[in-house]
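Quick note —
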Amino acid sequence: MNRAMGIAQIGVRATGTILLVMGILIWTGSGEPLVRAHAAIGVVFVLSLWAVAGIGLRAGVGAVLPARLLVWGLVIAWFGMAQHGVMVGRWHWVIRVLHVAVGLIAIGLSEAVGARARKGASPAAPGAARAP
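Predicted structure written out below.
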């Protein structure tokens, strides 16, 4: 389980970093040809988030945090597809900032699910107190 979680989290981290760099290039106007690749990698990002959520559920971290991650993946997918038509004009930068924030929140949720899965999967001696 730890290996699968590690691979899924690497997927989230790697695609998240690539998306952030590509997004900055697109935002600054020098990366317009990257928009389709950004969207395609965004799909892999969302699938990686969902993998982390699924593995977290199987690892017994509870249902709430993985469910949030699953729903947040849907939010990201919707936001990514809809952002070009939202608040078009001089205020579109607000949507771009929100798009970045939504992605960063997703990475944070993914890290939280992974941390709880590792904590729950780590063997503790009977009667031993777990570190906070």
